[in-house]
Amino acid sequence: MTPPRTYLTTTIPYVNARPHLGFALELVQADVLARHHRRRGGQVRFQTGTDDNSLKNVLAAQAAGVAVQDFVDANAAKFVALADPLSLSVDDVIRTSRDPRHREGVERFWRACADSGDLYRKHYEGLYCVGCEQFYTEAELRQGHCPDHGTRPQRVSEENWFFRLSRYTEALHDLIASRTVRIEPAERRNEVLSFIAGGLEDFSISRSTDRAHGWGIPVPGDPSQVIYVWWDALGNYLTALGYGTGGDALRRWWTEADHRIHLVGKGVLRFHAVYWPAMLLSAGEALPTGVFVHDYLTVDGRKLSKSGGATVDPAALVERYGTDPVRWWLLREVPRVGDADFTLERLVSRANDELANGLGNLVNRTVSMIHRYRNGIPPVAKASAPDAHALDQATRRAADLIGSALADFDFRRATAAVWDIVDEANRYINHVRPWELAKAEHGEHGEHGEHGEHGEHGEHGQLDAVLATLLRSCHDIAEHLAPFLPDAADRIVRQCTPVNGKLPAPEPVQRRLTLPEPDGRTAANGS
After folding, report:
1. What share of the chain is helix, strand, coil (3-state, %, to 5)?
2. Which of 185, 248, 396, 439 lies 20 to 30 A from 302 at CA?
3. How far apart are the first and last CA of the chain?
4. Rounded to whole angstroms, how far apart are CA atoms 417 and 411?
5. Distance (Å, rounded) from C-alpha 111 to C-alpha 424?
6. 7 pairs with which residues across the strands?
7. What is the DSSP string of 478-527?
8. pLDDT tens-digit map of 371-399
9. Which residue ranges does the record assign to the Methionyl/Leucyl tRNA synthetase domain (predicted)?
10. Contact at 8 Å (CB) between 274 and 172?
11. Is 317 in the same domain as 330?
12. Tell me, what's the pLDDT at 140?
């Protein structure tokens, strides 16, 4: 039987400034799904990239006094470099201004939609937000301002190419309502269906070359126009697979893949769940099977934004606090629906309470007790561990709970299933009190050889069974934790795997973190 094939993509961000934590959230979520599917035997392609051909990038380069390509290259490199600090298992990265696959694919896609009779040119006047790179109607604005950026859109009047989105109204509704194109969570699906029910209008898919400052991909056969950045950017999901340049990747990862999943923020849902499927229908290509939507990260209630001033640098955050605390906060704190407000206090508290005190303490106590009571040699249980039902149950049900949660794009619920094992294992230690079994075995009754006077099912046998159960639980935790915290999982495995018959000396799985001092100094240790 052929393993299921999954194509996972993130959005490709504008590179008008350094990356912020909001994009790191999407990268980490995609990485968890990619690792999860791989560990279950699936074939996975995890793709990300950068959106270089935006007017926002041009204006930011001009403000910085730097040539556009140089500016874009420098910032794009910072996005690509996130793979290492965030421990990402990315398979491919596409840059829309540099990658030779992209322009040819975008041009081919344009011609495919033109051949379907869905492109036409007309004069248009409207309110355009450069920050969103989209037109708004008066009704969509908030007191005349962009609902996302708080700025007044520019009034633009020019002749552009348009796409016949209205032609696909009924088809899109049916595809989404039937979940042929599955949108998660349900609140976002309902939002899209409501938008479609309000009536779909054709939308502009080009900009004058003058207004675009000559930056972008020219419209095939019309050098006076540049292809709209969103049309250009959405095409990356195909162009990175050789759409336009050939090869087998398009068939393998798009046309015949079992799952084609886009991870997106709620601010770009309309583009991915309405415009993009309609464009694919026009071009005669397969549709995404899933659009998984996350809400915003905020700081002091303000949406994280590269241009809006509210930002948190994920690379700097990892450098100070470590990869695992940052990934863990993103996966444990961010709800399935609703924005999440980031603070250093929450990051440090979550890492200390769970990674250091909960997980780290469990592994350290287990390895330390095996060293203390069995000279570091992992015991072999010759009897069932006493009172281990709750721990066994948490372990047995974890895989199914994690699988169903991730299928629903619910990272909080998935990590909670892992954490149930940690909690039960710590409760188990406090309940069975291995140190008292050791005291009864060697202290109260003296030294009596391998099993003492109580035999293998007495205190000695019970202690072996308890220690073996705890060590197995640590391995189980590492196995289930690996998609979420691959680095921590590797450290647990190293701690709990014998070398030449003995476990390594115990070392912290996660060091405790501290907040910066008022003068900016910090004693925080990374993982």
Report:
1. 50, 15, 35
2. 185
3. 40
4. 10
5. 59
6. 45, 260
7. HHHHTTT-HHHHHHHHHHTS-BTTBPPPP--SSPPP-PPPTTS-------
8. 999 999 999 988 889 999 999 999 999 99
9. 141-366
10. yes
11. no
12. 76
Radius of gyration from C-alpha coordinates of the chain: 27
User: Measured between alpha carbons, how far is residue 455 from residues 104, 336, 442, 477 in Å?
Assistant: 76, 53, 13, 31
Instruction: Give the C-alpha separation, 470 to 496, whole Å.
Output: 10
Q: In 178-210, which positions are buried (b, 16+ CB within 10 angstroms) versus exposed (e)?
A: eeebbbbbeebbebbbeebeeebebbbbbbebe
**DSSP secondary structure code for residue 273 in this structure:** I
The structure tokens listed for 153 are 């859109």
Residues 263 and 178 in one domain: yes
For residue 137, what are the CA distances in angstroms to 101, 121, 141, 275?
35, 20, 7, 17
User: For residues 310 and 326, what is the distance between their CA atoms, to the nearest angstrom?
Assistant: 18
Distance CA 225, CA 230 (A): 14
How many Å apart are CA 258 and CA 418, to the nearest integer? 27
Single-letter code of the amino acid located at 277: P
Query: What is the largest distance, in Å, between two alpha-carbon atoms of the chain?
Result: 96
Count of structural domains within the chain: 2
**Average pLDDT score over the chain:** 92
* Helical pair 323-333 and 21-39, crossing angle rounded to 10 deg: 90
Q: Are residues 236 and 295 in the same domain?
A: yes
Q: Do 295 and 369 fall within a single domain? A: no
Identify whether residues 453 and 367 lie together within a single domain: yes
- The two beta strands, 43-50 and 5-10, are parallel
| pTM reported for the whole predicted model | 0.91
**Token pair recorded at residue 84:** 């290492």
Burial of 1 (0-12, 13-18, 19+ CB in 10 A): exposed
What is the tens place of the pLDDT at every residue in 401-417? 999 999 999 999 999 99
* Other CB atoms within 10 Å distance of the CB of residue 319: 13
**pLDDT for residue 447:** 45
Q: Which of 107-116, 155-164, 195-204 has the lowest mean pLDDT?
A: 155-164
Residues 215 and 124 in one domain: yes
Q: How confident is the model at residue 244 (pLDDT cuts 50, 70, 90)?
A: very high
Separation CA 488–CA 485 (nearest Å):
5
Question: Is 200 in contact with 183 (CB distance < 8 Å)?
Answer: no
H/E element holding 162?
strand 154-163
Q: Cβ neighbours of residue 51 under 8 Å, at least 6 residues apart?
A: 11, 12, 13, 14, 15, 96, 229, 232, 233, 236
Are both 107 and 227 inside the same structural domain? yes
Where in the sequence is the domain holding 107, given as residue range(s)? 5-321
Q: Which helix (H) or strand (E) holds 261?
A: strand 259-265
Is there a domain that residue 500 lies in?
Answer: no
